[in-house]
Amino acid sequence: MAKLWKRIPGSVYKRVFDNSKAYHGTFIVVFVSPALTHVVGFTASRKVGESVERNYARRLMKEAFRSVSPSLMPDFAYVLVARKPIVASSVEDVRHELARLTAQYRQQ
């Protein structure tokens, strides 16, 4: 089965941040920008915690994105940024919040 979503190259992050709309939640911030292909990026800064916690946060976001991705609009770039409370959350919490945030931009 072919991958539907590709990882955003490092050089594209700034363009997505500059030309996107941000949706803020308790655990994550989702940046959505028009793009030519389906691309996604996950980031967790050092404010989230040590490397183990940042990697855990990225894994949570990736798993939540996998379950929500079939309902996402095509031809958009998504960047998910972890916030500090994500470390104490479960994948269900992150999945629920991601679904809520993506529903916000679909309504607009």
TrEMBL record:
EC class of the enzyme, as a word: hydrolase
Presence of the UniProt keyword DNA repair in the record: no
Keywords associated with the record: Endonuclease, Hydrolase, Membrane, Nuclease, RNA-binding, Transmembrane, Transmembrane helix, tRNA processing
Keyword Transmembrane helix in record: yes
SUPFAM superfamilies in the cross-refs: Ribosomal protein S5 domain 2-like (SSF54211)
Transmembrane segments: 22-44
Functional note: RNaseP catalyzes the removal of the 5'-leader sequence from pre-tRNA to produce the mature 5'-terminus. It can also cleave other RNA substrates such as 4.5S RNA. The protein component plays an auxiliary but essential role in vivo by binding to the 5'-leader sequence and broadening the substrate specificity of the ribozyme.
Protein name from the UniProt record: Ribonuclease P protein component
Lineage of source species: Bacteria, Pseudomonadati, Caldisericota/Cryosericota group, Candidatus Cryosericota, Candidatus Cryosericia
